Amino acid sequence: MDNPWKTLKINHKYENPWIKLEEHDILNPAGNPGIYGKVHFKNKALGIIPVDSEMHTWLVGQYRYTLEEYSWEIPMGGGLIGQDILQSAQRELKEETGLIAKKWTQIMRIHTSNSVTDEEGFVFLAEDLIQEEPEFEETEVLQIKRVPFLEALDWVMEGKITDGISIAGILKAAKILGL
After folding, report:
1. Which of 159, 163, 138 minimizes the C-alpha distance to 75?
2. Which of 19, 58, 114, 124 is the least buried, fewest Cβ under 10 Å from its Cβ?
3. Quick one: which of 105, 115, 109 has its CA closest to 177?
4. CA-to-CA dists, residue 145 to 34, 46, 140, angstroms
5. How many DSSP H helices and E strands does the chain contain?
């Protein structure tokens, strides 16, 4: 489908190592002028659902500064645009849980909030696991929990997991795993 929007001018408002905020002067699909805010992410969002031979998975709990609340999520992080997403996902899984997986399957591509951001995410199913020690980053104070996969699915359905990538990834993995 052709783009019904016309960009007249892009005003750069703010930038840091992770995001860039732009305000676009536009003509909307009806031809009327307006503005559109866009958050550009400098990383790909990566989520990993590790599943062991006993059908357990790992969740990561942490305080999320932007929400001002504690959040349970699948292991996740960012991979620089242009870097291999699988290698970045492997690094994130090891950092946050200490897990190394021998089998990786990309199960999802997702846009996290496509009305205001161009962030693109990918979710992987990680299997055939080896447990080592986590390698947390300095910004991470994480609680790691190994739970039956069906319990993680229950947490999604009960609203205990609210992160969008985690919800979508767990639901997709449940379907793939036949649960």
Report:
1. 163
2. 114
3. 105
4. 47, 19, 15
5. 3, 10
* pTM for the predicted model, two decimal places: 0.91
Tokens 């999320």 belong to which residue? 64
- The pLDDT of residue 119 is 94
Query: For residues 29 and 74, what is the distance between their CA atoms, to the nearest angstrom?
Result: 38
Q: What does the pLDDT read at residue 104? A: 98
122 contacts 109 by C-beta, under 8 angstroms: yes
Residue bearing tokens 């500064």: 65
Q: Amino acid letter at 123?
A: V
With a pLDDT cut of 70, the percent of the chain lying above it is 100
Compute the distance between CA of residue 152 and CA of residue 145 in angstroms, rounded to an integer.
Answer: 10
CB 142 within 8 A of CB 58: no
Neighbours of 175 (CB within 10 A): 10
Q: Which residue has the higher pLDDT, 138 or 90?
A: 90
**How far apart, in Å, are the Cα atoms of 37 and each of 56, 120, 169?**
41, 17, 27
Token reading at 28: 């909307």
